[in-house]
User: Fold this.
Amino acid sequence: MITVENLSKSFPLNGSPVVALRDVSVDIQAGSLFGVVGPAGSGKSTLARCIGLQERPDRGVVRLDGLNTGTLDGRRLREIRRQVGIVDSKIDLLAERTVAGNIASPLEQLGLDGPQRRTRVANLLDLVGLTPRASQRPSELTDGQRRRVAVAKALAASPSVLLADDPTAGIHPDEAGSVLTVLDRARAELGVTILLTTPDAGVVRRVCDDVAVLENGTVVERGTVLDLISDPSSRTAQALLPAIETTRAQSAKYDRSVDVVLVGFASVGALLPEAAGRFDVELSTIGGGLTRIGDTPVGRFRLGVRGVQADAALAWIAERGGHVSHPARGPQGLAA
Ligand code: ADP
Ligand code: MG
Assistant:
């Protein structure tokens, strides 16, 4: 568990300080994949570096498993730092060593003996899907493969926390997915807690359980991704849910229209037809669509609604976890 309490950090710049973080608080559950999303310059890397104990905040506290890291002296700080693996934009692989050699290098420094080291390297190669490339040099790999080697190397010393600062930066979109898959596997198979920063909401959609949205050094939204998408006004919902595009003519055929967000296989597959049948109402999809958040199917639809028992049908959907809201301006000028 990582707790960040009221963190602030500025950097001096030509006399006037640049504020990178303002009063930032987040809780990162052990074993979760926590995303920090925000535009360039919003403070993501500074937050990651403060949590990785590479940077000291001006104010506020970073606790790792309850331990206040601000009180640690040099030796203890170095020990605790070893529990945090870091993958950032510079991929510092050793050009003259093989992929396996690169992953082994932190283990050599720790003095792990040969057989143990080889087993650990083999497991990590498998985790990052690069077993067939074990004896190649970094220069023979693609950018995405090199990033995966960097992840394996950062995981070699069995850290409890992995900081992945914009892990898909500079990587071709075709390869970005495999980098994220590796992070997801590291979380699932090694139980490592992962803090991932990204400017890309699509990355959050693929792998994050929880998210904090940063703007100008301030957390403007945070929560579990699935909770946030249930609130159509949240930034996360706006970034991740399918857009609703309907024409006036489409909605004019119905008594009114409503928006629903459905989360999970059961809801997405069955809730609307079941409600329509049970209450004998028409619920027609006139906009929106389906997406996936991690492994969870999620739908946002605009429904054209017709029938005497429409309110009862919508209430029934809401009781079963559907999130029903009214579009800002309904057809025929009906306000929500
Ligand atoms: P992000 O990772 O979201 O792009 P950063 O944390 O790198 O954001 O930067 C946040 C702000 O802090 C930016 O305005 C940046 O210019 C400034 N900043 C970050 N690191 C330094 C530094 N070492 N010296 C001066 N300014 C910095
Ligand atoms: Mg950055």
Remarks:
- Residues 173-190 form the longest helix (18 residues).
